[in-house]
Write a structure and sequence with these properties.
With 446 residues, the protein is an alpha/beta fold. It is built from 19 helices and 16 strands. The protein binds adenosine-5'-triphosphate (ATP) and magnesium ion (MG). The site of magnesium ion has 3 residues, from helix 7. One of its GO terms (molecular function) is ATP binding.
């Protein structure tokens, strides 16, 4: 990571040197200027995360410098150092947009603390901007599709719970859309302008997970060279999505419970808690009741999370959504790959309608994407679908042909009042073939 850059502006050389040595030791990159004019020149040429400036200086003084820099960059962080007793200029500085002020003579600790505060808030700002950008980008390309009764129930529930701050527990098999629903809840909430932060509880080792979630103090473990804000702080006033919460280790479960109860976090290596305002949405594809019985998931945590349970039905409970999702993904991936929109043959859509979809919407999405890549013509046929799907469904697809055949035979017999010879002729088959079929299907005159 690039080091944070600080400019020190003071007409007294001893102060510049003393500050610069002390702050370099903290890991900052330092530039110095003797007066406002020089400082302004430097500022125009370079990027600085913070500026510490004296007020009384020859040429351009601190207050004028503040005005000039704020004119160039309204979000510049400027700390003023003022002589003891000159409260008015301190107030003027704050009015002019200074981030902070320190009264001289000051201790180096004071400067460090104020700088750290500024850098931390800058980091949070950056992370927020980044997360929002990620969110916006994804939002653009992701729509929620589904009109089946089972899915409409989910959407109605989403509508009802989005505006509240209650904790939500989303249940659903893998690929059913737990994450897309969690985001939808965030997007429809009053927190939409704040971060939506996702963490996969199963993907990180316990020590890392804790410091990711709660942050850490400098020196709390090897490699912790700076204080670091936890994701719960990044998510402040926003939404926190705890994905695969069933995978959380016992130690982290205790800490999560604490956040949910107290609404505060304690960074690793710290003793002072920090208040956070987050809405928590958790998700799992596991049987948490079973995990509780096995003693690997805490009951108290479960009840804290399970305030509003929301179950996303598997694909096989909402088959009428299959054609809608198929069309949606066809459009999405044909556009993405810059090829003309492909159709899907009726055989292929029958296979899709009958398949069991253990991987749910994600499996369907992948199947369509794959078929578009493989199929060079304009129609996706059975053969373009994954082997597994074809193997699972042929009996049923041809079963439906069988049904059609039976129907045709039955109506031919009805038309001819069960005259098999005539019926065979209308069907365009040999009478002996008809007899064989009648026997196979067990069809008798009633
Ligand atoms: N109703 C839907 N409409 C459109 N796309 C959907 C829908 N449901 C899921 N998807 C898409 O399917 C994929 C899987 O969804 P998502 O990641 O939300 O599922 P999940 O339940 O979190 O899965 P996992 O358990 O594997 O983490 C994503 O690409 C998502 O955009
Ligand atoms: Mg997921």
């Amino acid at each position: 990571m690039a080091r944070e850059r600080v400019m020190i502006v003071d007409d007294e050389e001893s102060i510049r040197e003393w500050l610069s040595i002390a702050l370099k030791k903290e890991g900052y990159e330092i530039k110095c200027a003797e007066n406002g004019e020089q400082a302004l020149e430097l500022y125009k040429k370079d990027r600085f995360d913070a500026i510490i400036t004296d007020i009384r200086m020859p040429k351009l003084d601190g207050l004028e410098l503040l005005k000039e820099i704020k004119g160039l960059n309204p979000s510049a962080n400027i700390i003023m150092t003022t002589a003891f007793g000159s409260m008015e200029s301190a107030i003027e500085a704050l009015r002019g947009g200074a981030a902070d002020y320190i009264t001289k003579p000051f201790k180096i600790e004071e400067v460090k603390l104020r700088l750290e505060k500024i850098m931390e808030s800058e980091r949070l700002k950056r992370e927020n901007i980044y997360l929002k950008a990620v969110l916006k980008k994804k939002e653009g390309e992701k729509k929620i599709i589904g009109k089946s009764p089972a899915f409409m129930k989910v959407l109605a529930m989403v509508d009802k719970i989005s505006k509240s701050d209650s904790t939500i527990m989303i249940y659903g098999d893998s690929g059913t859309g737990k994450e897309i629903i969690a985001k939808e809840i965030h997007n429809r909430s009053n927190r939409v302008d704040r971060a939506f932060v996702t963490i996969n509880c199963g993907a990180l080792p316990e020590t890392l997970l804790e410091s990711e979630l709660f942050g850490h103090k400098k020196g709390s473990f090897t490699g912790a060279i700076k204080d670091k804000a936890g994701l719960f702080q990044v998510a402040d006033k926003g939404t926190f999505f705890l994905d695969e919460v069933g995978e959380t280790s016992p130690g982290t479960q205790v800490k999560l419970l604490r956040v949910l109860q107290e609404r505060e976090i304690v960074p690793v290596g710290s003793t002072s808690p920090i208040k956070v305002d987050v809405r928590v949405i958790a998700a799992t594809n596991e049987d948490l009741e079973q995990k509780m019985d096995d003693g690997v998931f805490r009951k108290d945590l479960f009840y804290r999370l399970n305030v509003i349970p929301l179950r996303i039905p598997p694909m096989k409970e909402r088959r009428t959504d299959i054609p809608l999702l198929t069309d949606y993904f066809l459009k999405k991936y044909c556009t993405k790959m810059g090829v003309p929109l492909k159709k899907i043959s009726s055989g292929a859509s029958q296979v899709m309608m009958r398949y069991s979809w253990p991987g749910n919407v994600r499996e369907l999405e992948n199947a369509i994407e794959r078929a578009i890549v493989l199929q060079e013509g304009d129609t996706i046929r059975i053969g373009d679908l994954p082997e597994k799907m074809i193997q699972e469904t042929p009996k049923q697809v041809f079963g439906s042909l069988k049904e059609k055949e039976k129907e045709a035979i039955a109506s031919a017999l009805e038309e001819t009042a069960w005259n098999a010879a005539k019926a065979a002729r209308t069907l365009g088959i040999h009478p002996s073939t008809l007899y064989r079929k009648l026997k196979r299907y067990g069809m008798d005159k009633k």
